[in-house]
Design goal:
Shape: globular
Helix content: 25-40%
CATH topology: Rossmann fold
Strand content: 25-35%
CATH superfamily: P-loop containing nucleotide triphosphate hydrolases
Order of helices and strands: EEEHEEHEHHHEHEHEE
Oligomer: single chain
Structural class: alpha/beta
């Protein structure tokens, strides 16, 4: 693993004050993620782990503090700049898959590359490569409703990986999967982490994911409680 820091979170606080009683989701989180990590952010429901992942991914903004990704302080970007930044730097895998229901598996995987204006030949080759990598080369013309939950999540992983992002953020990616599908998905991610050096950061309370992680960051009440390397 190189020592290149791809994510630098510095004294990040996040308060949601839309309700009568403000909710302090993060309370001074500081964290560095280096290239090639396979890291799980863990903690009970309401601990702040999903908020932290959303802020790292530019889906939410810190109330105070900074988040530097690939050398750029994303907390200073406009909404449009953030959209462009996410498109070219970050791959997302969500608990709910977030596939586009009217598109086939192939069309879902190539969607971000279309937005990036990748030429058709490269787009087609990369889409096929990623669907084969997740074991769905024979299901590329199926729509999400024609796939099982595990297969849909693997399409979501292929979509996240296809544009070759700097890193992957996965929010509870195994929450809706059975043991076999979870093992398969983690095998795929671990292989891509080892062979292509992709950086993975998971938000999870799934012990199966925690057992496979090489670093476990525990968050409780919006603060980093423990940071353990395996």
């Amino acid at each position: 693993m190189t020592e290149e820091i791809v994510i630098k979170v510095s004294d990040v606080h996040k308060t949601y004050d839309e309700t009568k009683v403000p909710v302090k989701a993060l309370r001074g989180v500081t964290l560095d993620i280096k290239k090639g990590e396979f890291t799980a952010i863990v903690g009970p429901s309401g601990s702040g782990k999903t908020t932290l992942l959303n802020i790292i991914g530019g889906l939410d903004r810190p109330t105070t503090g900074s988040v530097v990704v690939n050398g750029m302080d994303i907390s200073t970007l406009s909404d449009n700049q953030l959209i462009d930044f996410r498109k070219t730097n970050i791959g997302f895998v969500f608990q709910s898959y977030n596939l586009i229901p009217v598109l086939t598996a192939r069309e879902n995987v190539e969607f971000v590359m279309l937005l990036q204006k990748v030429d058709k030949a490269k787009r087609d080759a990369r889409t096929k490569e990623m669907l084969q990598a997740v074991g769905l080369g024979d299901r590329m013309h199926n729509k999400p409703t024609e796939l099982s939950g595990g297969q849909q999540q693997r399409v979501a992983v292929a979509r996240a990986l296809a544009p070759k992002p700097s890193f992957i953020l996965a929010d509870e990616p195994t929450a809706n999967l059975d043991s076999s599908s979870t093992a398969n998905l983690l095998d795929i991610m671990a292989q891509l982490n080892q062979e292509e050096g992709m950086t993975f950061v998971f938000s999870t309370h799934d012990q199966r994911v925690i057992d496979r992680a090489r670093r476990v960051v525990t968050i409780e009440d919006g603060k980093v409680l423990k940071d353990e390397w395996r």
